[in-house]
Design goal:
The two termini are about 25 Å apart. A 4-stranded antiparallel beta sheet has the order 1-2-3-4, with no helix packed on it. A 4-stranded antiparallel beta sheet has the order 5-6-7-8, with no helix packed on it. About 5% of the residues have low confidence. It is globular, with a radius of gyration of 20 Å. It is mainly β. The chain contains 2 helices and 20 strands. A hairpin with a 5-residue loop joins strand 6 and strand 7.
């Protein structure tokens, strides 16, 4: 579509089912599309037919494809509807016909370990009766004087919910070292960008009780995770710990779209209104749970 006169310039036909994602290459006029027809297709703006197709397994559901910041690699996320597990496969954009060169989604044990740590952190931050961490013992063993069955049930509930979460989209960090997986739940997941044997970070700092599609991405310097909240706030979280650094207000509905400028320290958020944010400084000395003058919103 021409942004100057709102006129269609070209229609791209090739999919036979709903599109789940579109991703523009940062280096040329190519783009990716992923569809429920179980294909990922590579296009160029100059031609209406696809340059190539990747046929996904018939058990794959809700595929999502995305270029990295270099344009040399793209990832394909999908969920197996029989085994109920996810795959996140990386392809060489110059040789995608050879198939993926790596699947970087962690295995069940690493996901479970990350979920338990996240559940313990969540309860310690939101509970007047904190639990004791005992990494050398049973990870579910909370039978200490300060803990009770309620804590144990809460941990098991969070772990179960996170392991059953359907991951719907992902973003590459600008440095290429991490990936951020988003979901229609409370959870975000930060993966290592190169290996699947590194324990991921499960983030439980946001709220999404309504199960709406909340936006999420990395900051330009890859140090923060930016995401919406179902109370209409906008959160800045530490990438390494998931700790809440800022909670910003300015929206009248849940933030469904978040985008970080790849070159400058500015990011945009959108619900029914759009806001540009300019973080002047992000230090740890200010109150983590309140809006402050260090981040300016330009509606």
């Amino acid at each position: 579509m021409c942004m100057y006169d709102n006129r269609y310039l070209r229609c791209f036909k090739g999919h036979v089912d709903k599109l789940n994602s579109l991703s523009m290459s940062p280096v040329d006029d190519c783009f990716l599309s992923a569809s429920n027809d179980k294909t990922v297709q590579l296009w160029n703006l100059s031609t209406p037919t696809p340059l190539g197709k990747i046929f996904l397994p018939p058990t794959c559901e809700q595929p999502f494809a995305k270029f990295d910041e270099s344009g040399m690699v793209f990832g394909v996320l999908c969920r197996d509807n029989i085994f109920r597990r996810h795959t996140l496969k990386l392809f060489d954009a110059r040789n995608y016909e050879a198939g993926p060169f790596q699947d970087i989604f962690p295995d069940y044990k690493l996901m479970e370990s990350a979920a338990i740590k996240a559940a313990r952190l969540y309860l310690n931050n939101n509970n007047n009766n904190p639990i004791n961490n005992n990494p050398e013992g049973d990870i579910y063993n909370l039978s200490t004087p300060n803990n009770n069955n309620n804590n144990q049930n809460q941990i098991q509930s969070i772990v179960k919910k996170s392991l059953q979460t359907s991951w719907t989209s992902f973003e590459f960090s600008s440095d290429g070292n991490h990936l951020l997986l988003n979901s229609a739940s409370d959870f975000l997941l930060v993966l290592d960008g190169f290996r699947n044997d590194v324990e991921p970070l499960l983030i439980t700092s946001r709220k999404n009780d309504a199960g709406v599609a909340l936006g999420a991405c990395f900051s330009a310097n890859s140090k923060y995770v930016l995401t919406g909240n179902d109370d209409n706030d906008f959160l800045l979280l530490d990438r390494n710990s998931g700790e809440l650094k800022r909670s910003l207000t300015g929206h009248v509905a849940p933030v469904g779209c978040v985008c970080s400028n790849p070159k400058f320290d500015i990011f945009a958020t959108g619900c029914v209104n759009s806001v540009l944010w300019i973080p002047k400084v992000l230090d740890d000395s200010n109150n983590n749970n309140s809006s402050n003058n260090n981040t300016t919103g330009l509606t």
